[in-house]
Amino acid sequence: MNATPPPVKKGLGFRASQVALRHPTLARRMMRQPVTTIDGTTLDPELEVVVASSRIFRQPFLGGGTERERRGRIKRAAKLAAAARQDIRVWTRQVDGADGPLDARWYRHRNDPGGGPGMVYFHGGGWVVGDLETHDAACRHLAAEAQTTVVSVDYRLAPEHVFPAAPHDAIAATRWVLAHAEQHDIDPERIGVGGDSAGGNLSAVVAQQLRDDDRAPSLQMLIYPGTTFAERMPSRDALHPVRADRCRYGLLHQYVRTRTHQSARAASLRGFCERGVSGGRRGCGFRPATRRGRRVRRQTPRRWRRSDPVRL
């Protein structure tokens, strides 16, 4: 019988994960977590530690539990990320949503005079969890490394607001930023959309829906985007097929209220703005993705480029 109460066990698991992530390679060996290699590529050591911690302490990341429990877990997981940068100016300013104003958090490097590019960012979390706070560190890093003004949008989440509330909010918010770019010292010709996971999905949808607008995004930054629902993926099956499917379909069921999901692929990608697709780094991808700066640079229009490689 386990004599450790669940709340204490969760606390121990969180603190152990914090310590392990400081030395991921050593921690992975101590946890007896095998190296995960698929098609010749190896999973990032830090993500190996997260997978092992979830298994050892029996703490699912997103799957299982109520929406409140899921949202609490992702907020705790966000605290495992690197410390937030303090050289960023951060302010709040609401933007238009599809059914009223939405909270948004704006980021710009302290040495950035303005007038440069902008990025409308949508957080990940399966359209059910995540918020401005869970992705604060990531947005600060993006603003500093890409020298861009980041607008993180707090779009409506399921199950309180099911599909198509999230994409409608994303479309309306992006149109608002494009229309008011000059008022916020952003170059309207250099505004992109980006996000991770579910946020990458929303970014791709926005780029498709706005491509014929007078003002449209000029770049998509898609970080391990959720762009396919019907198909199984080798990496999902290799990591944990049962858990991956339960998590994926559980979140989708909350989002679209059906367990029958068709392919979401567009018939054609002609006419869309430039895309930079990343498998992620430090928490959601395989090691080759750490070279994404060079890959994104090759896919980035010249008017977006800095003198040194873009690091997203």
Question: Topology of this protein?
Answer:
Elements: H1 6-22, H2 24-30, E1 37-38, E2 41-42, H3 45-56, H4 67-78, E3 88-92, E4 95-97, E5 100-102, E6 104-109, E7 116-122, H5 136-145, E8 149-153, H6 165-179, E9 186-196, H7 198-209, E10 219-223, H8 234-239, H9 241-256, E11 274-278, H10 292-299
Parallel strand pairs: 7-8, 7-9, 9-10, 10-11
Antiparallel strand pairs: 1-2, 3-6, 4-5, 6-8
Helix pairs in contact: 1-3, 2-3, 6-7
Key features?
alpha/beta; disordered C terminus; disordered N terminus; two-stranded antiparallel ribbon; 312 residues; 17% strand; 2 domains; 7-stranded mixed beta sheet; Rossmann fold; globular
Describe this structure in words.
With 312 residues, the chain is of the alpha/beta class. It folds into two domains: 6-59; 88-230 and 255-304, 3-Layer(aba) Sandwich (Rossmann fold). Helix content is 37%, strand content 17%. It is built from ten helices and eleven strands. Strands 3-6-8-7-9-10-11 form a seven-stranded mixed beta sheet, sandwiched between helices. It has a two-stranded antiparallel ribbon with strand order 1-2. The longest helix is centred in the N-terminal third of the chain and has 17 residues, at 6-22. The protein is globular. Mean pLDDT is 76; it is low at 1-9 and 280-312.
